[in-house]
Amino acid sequence: MEFDFAAEQPKFLMLMYGLIAFVAVVGGLLLLLDVVPSFFARRREAQLVAASASGAPLPRRRKQGEGAFAFFFLLPTLLLLAVGLVVPAVRTTLLSFMDSGSNKWVGLDNYRWMFAEDSIVRVLINTLIWVLLVPLVATAFGLIYAVLVDKARFEAVAKSLIFLPMAISFVGASIIWKFVYAYRGEGDQIGLLNQIVVSLGGEPKQWLLDSPLNTFLLIVIMVWIQAGFAMVVLSAAIKAIPADIVEAARLDGTTPWQMFWRITIPSIRPALIVVVVTISIATLKVFDIVRTSTNGNYDTNVIATEMYNQAFRYQENGQGSALAVFLFVLVIPIVIYQIRNLRKQREG
């Protein structure tokens, strides 16, 4: 098929305009961030030099001007935050008190539905299972990996292999594990898990159809991905433990098990909290794994997938918004706890 340049010319023009706009905006911002601070720095330096040469008192910084200058640079971030987070959050909250067509106020009916409908209660229970298991199991595996590979001969290679799943998207990881759980009737199996079962004399089965086992099998995918993140953070924390503390413990005759519980764990506690909080937030928002693996069927739905189904598949805007608000409310205590923890670390 011959390429018709004339027919595609409008698309090329649109692409060119987009590139020009991108270069203008990014280049302008970079120029602004470089030129404006440099101008004020040079002017301040000239004032200091002139005052020093004349013996006059050094000019004081004008705090009011500095505040306006800081607000000037924060303004784009504040605007993006308002447009991308604040406004949608307020709108979603309002929609959660309205009917499916967003035409009439229904009060708390959507929230009552959430806790009265058996299928939605099942969704909430699944989400609770995810939030309880994934952070703890992923952090535990990450900690084990960090301790085992610390100062090992091939430490860099081992860490790279363990961290590798983090480089794969949730969708890609789900597809990989769907092959692991795959089922093909009788005979040779293409799924790794079923092939192991058959080789041991068992019967193959469709793993992702059995509830609640399928939920735990999906959780394995999330743990496989997040364990590498936990390992990297905790390994860095372990290496940051002062050598004199470790050496003193060894001189006191501390066993490896005592070293782990009395020295390593207390020393890396802030890193452990960061890992657990980060993975907890990621787990509450999990969507891709469930959507790709089972599409939420067979009692595997979580809040994020059910929110999507209600809002976009069933056109139930009120119920979908209520689930979104509930998910947001669940995240808030975790964020507040993390902020308080960071403040304590700074003050300590």
Note down, in words, how this protein is organized.
- The protein has 348 residues and is mostly helical.
- 76% of the residues lie in helices and 0% in strands.
- It is built from 14 helices and no strands.
- α2 packs antiparallel against α14.
- The radius of gyration is 28 Å and the shape is extended.
- 23% of the residues are buried.
- The model has no long low-confidence stretch (mean pLDDT 84).
Beta content comes to under 5%
What's the helical proportion of residues?
over 70%
Outline the biggest β-sheet.
Answer: none
SS-derived structural category: mainly alpha
Q: Kindly provide the radius of gyration, computed on alpha-carbon positions and rounded to a whole number of angstroms.
A: 28 Å
Low-confidence stretches: none
Provide a concise account of the structure shown.
It is built from 14 helices and no strands. The protein has helices spanning 5-54, 63-95, 109-116, 118-149, 155-163, 170-180, 192-199, 213-239, 243-251, 256-267, 269-284, 288-293, 303-313, 317-347. The chain is extended and about 95 Å long.
